[in-house]
Design brief:
Number of strands: 4
Strand content: 5-15%
Distance between the termini: 17 Å
Length: about 130
Amino acid sequence: MSASPVRLGDPNIPLPVLLARVAEELGALGGLAEDLQAAVGELARSAMADAAAVEDVQQMDALAQRLQALSAFTGRISGAAPASWRVDAGPAIAAVPLSALAARLAGVEPAGDDEPSGDLDFFGDGL
């Protein structure tokens, strides 16, 4: 996680633009969840006798579907909102702890690659 602040030009962003950015992020997360679902599915196949593993795969599928649905919903709302509606997104963007995500929401090119995903943690032992 990165706490470096994102410099905004005019924080008063047209609402349709901001909603379109959120929709894009939700869509990207939905795609990531679908990719992870395949990996989790492969891992769970070896433990299919375990009902919890099956439920985990079903939960991952539900996550992917909900993210994609929210992306589509937000994208359609952005198309319906009048372009004259503006929102001061500065405080909301400042509250986003991931600098690359905050930059994309602000419409600014992120300074570098997306944030690292962090340590892999199995049973409380960071790897």
